[in-house]
Amino acid sequence: MERTIRVKDKDFRTFIKADVIDAAIQKVADTINLDTVTENPVFLVVLNGAFMFAADLLKKVTVNCSITFIKLASYSGTRSTDTVKELIGLNEDLTGRSVIIVEDIIDTGNTLNVLMDLLKSHGVGKIRIATLLFKPKAFQGDFNIDYVGLEIPNDFIVGYGLDYDGFARNLPDIYKIVE
User: Fold this and answer.
1) pTM (2 decimals)?
2) Secondary structure of 144-177 in the HEC alphabet?
3) For the segment 91-131, what is each residue's pLDDT rounded down to a tens digit?
4) CA torsion through residues 51, 54, 57, 62, sign
5) Is CATH 1.10.220.30 correct for 22-156?
6) Domain spans of the chain?
7) Active site residue 56
8) Which residue in the list 56, 107, 163, 173 is annotated as catalytic?
9) What is the mean pLDDT of the segment spanning 16-37?
10) Is there a contact between 174 and 158 (Cβ–Cβ < 8 Å)?
11) Which spans in the chain are helix H?
């Protein structure tokens, strides 16, 4: 059932239900399990947005792995900025390791460009990217996204870890802004 919610000063309507999200996560996990069976990858979770996706994804990942976190910021209100700030940095040695970056959403790709440069400077081995949501029409990166849960249009969305000025991350479904 579609519903409309109010977050701060904006209205949003149901866009992706929790069961669709779960099926997309299972698809990503199944592919990661096949691809990395011999690698013992490090999952590098980009906070804050990817926390829900990462928690559900890693419950479905069956390979030996470790998990670490980094906190980057590139949004102000409903718009992506051209500046990416590293708020909490890498705190462990990833030299030579296979790393899977876990993102909630990839739109322009600016955040990932910065993160990939950072990882390369730390001498990581193979870098892969897993995202729940991908906006191909907004994407400006020149790198491969290895695991995509769902492709979506270039709309502003909230819920399931995604926020509007810090609000609505806790919603189990994803909502699209009503223009």
Assistant:
1) 0.90
2) CCCEEEEECCCCCEEECCECECCECCCCCCEEEE
3) 788 899 999 999 999 999 988 988 898 899 889 999 999 99
4) negative
5) no
6) 22-156
7) no
8) 107
9) 98
10) yes
11) 18-35, 51-60, 110-121
